[in-house]
Amino acid sequence: MKKKLIALLLALAMGASLAACGGGGGTTQSPAGGTETTPAGTETGSGGEQTGAGKTVGIAMPTQSSERWINDGANMKAQLEALGYEVVLQYAEDDVQMQVSQIENMVAQQVDCLVIAAVDSGALTTVEAQAKTAGIPIIAYDRLLMDTDAVSYYASFDNKGVGTAIAEYIVEHKDLEAAKAAGESYTIEFFMGSPDDNNAVLLYQGIMEVLQPYLDDGTLVCKTGRTSFDDTCILRWSQEEAQKMCENYLSGFYADEDLDIICSAFDGFAYGCRSALEAAGYTEANWPMITGQDAELMATKNIISGKQTMSIYKDTRLLAEKCVTMVNAVINGTEPEINDTETYDNGVMVVPSYLCTPLAVDKDNYQELLVDSGYYTAEQLAE
C-alpha cells in the first residue's frame, strides 16, 4: 500500500510538473561531442514574463553511452527552452579533455549559467575558475564538482540513500535475518562505481553500512575477498570492465559453487554481469540476484524477464526540473530551493544541494512506478 501511495503521488507531481514545463523546443540529441543550440522561444513563465528571454544556459553532460544521461540532457533542454532560454547542450563521451574544451567554449560564448555533470569530478578546476572569473555561476548536476569554490549549487539524488536502498533490498528479499538465525549464508560480489565520481563513494558507504554486519558474521560470504571500495570500483562506470571482472570471479572462485548475489551499483554493470553469467552456463534455476541503478529501459526489460532483480529508479524528469529551477533562480537573482546544506563537502566548501529521493523498482512495482507515472510506456517495455 505504501508503494502504491508513493507511486500515485509521484505520478500526480510529475504530471503537474511536466504540464507546467511543457511546450518547449525539440529534444533531438546532438552528435557525439557536438553542440546543439536552440533559439529562445516565446514561452512565458508562471508570472507571464519570458523568464529566460535573451539568456543562454550551457549544459555539459558526460556521455551518451548511458541512456540516463541522454534523458537528463533532453529533459533539461526542453524545460529550459519552455522558459525561453537558449540552450547549448554538449556530451563529452567520457573524455575529460573534450569536456574541458566544451566548457571553455561555453565560457567564451559568455553563457549566463553552466550546468555540469562531470566526466571526472576533480578534473575541471581550472576551467571552473575561468567561469567564476567571467561571472558565470555553475550548478553541479548529479556529480559533485570537487576541489572548487566556483560551484554555486548541486542537484542530485540522495546518493548514500541509493546505496542504502540497494542494500536494504538485498537484506529484505534474501531474508538475511532468517539466514543468520539458521546459520545459513549467501555468496556475494560487489561492482561499485567510478573512483573519480564522489557519488560512487557515497553509494558504497550506504551499501556497506547495511551489509557489513552480515559480512562480519558470515551470513554474506565474498569469496574473492574484494569488499573495499578500491577493490570493487570500476573506472568510468565501464560495462565492459564489469563483465571482465565477473568472468574472472566466476572462473576463479565460483567453478564449484554458485554466486548468489551480484551487488551492482549501475544497470550497465548488471548487463555486463548478465553476459558473464550466461557464458558461464547460469540458467533460471541458479540465476543470482542482480541489483542496479537508473532503471534504464533495458534494465526494466531485464527485470520483467528475470535477468535482473531490481534497480534504483531516479526520475530524471524530476531531477531536471529541480536543476532548471536552480538555473532560473540563479540567473534571476533569487535563492533556489535546497534541502541539504551539510552533506556535500567538495574539499573546499560545502555545496548547497537539492536531493531527490531514489526508489527501488522490481518486478512487483515497475508498473506502478515506471508505467503509471509515464516514465515508460507499456509499448516501450514490450518492444
Class computed from helices, strands and strand pairing: alpha/beta
At CATH level 2, the architecture of the largest domain is 3-Layer(aba) Sandwich
| Annotation field: number of helices | 14
Query: What low-confidence regions span 5 or more consecutive residues with pLDDT below 50?
Result: 1-50
The figure for the number of domains is 2
Mean pLDDT across the residues is 89
Percent helix range: 40-55%
Could you tell me the strand content as a percent range?
Answer: 5-15%
| Level-1 CATH class name of the largest domain | Alpha Beta
What is the fold named in CATH at topology level of the largest domain? Rossmann fold
| Radius of gyration of CA atoms, rounded to a whole number | 21 Å
Global geometry:
elongated
- Biggest sheet overview: 7 strands, mixed
Tell me the series of helices and strands, N- to C-terminal: HEEHEHEHEEHHEHEHHEHEHEHEEHH
Spatial strand arrangement across the major sheet: 1-3-2-4-5-6-12
What is the distance, rounded to the nearest whole angstrom, between the alpha carbons of the first and last residues?
30 Å
What is the CATH superfamily label of the largest domain?
A: Response regulator
Total strand segments: 13
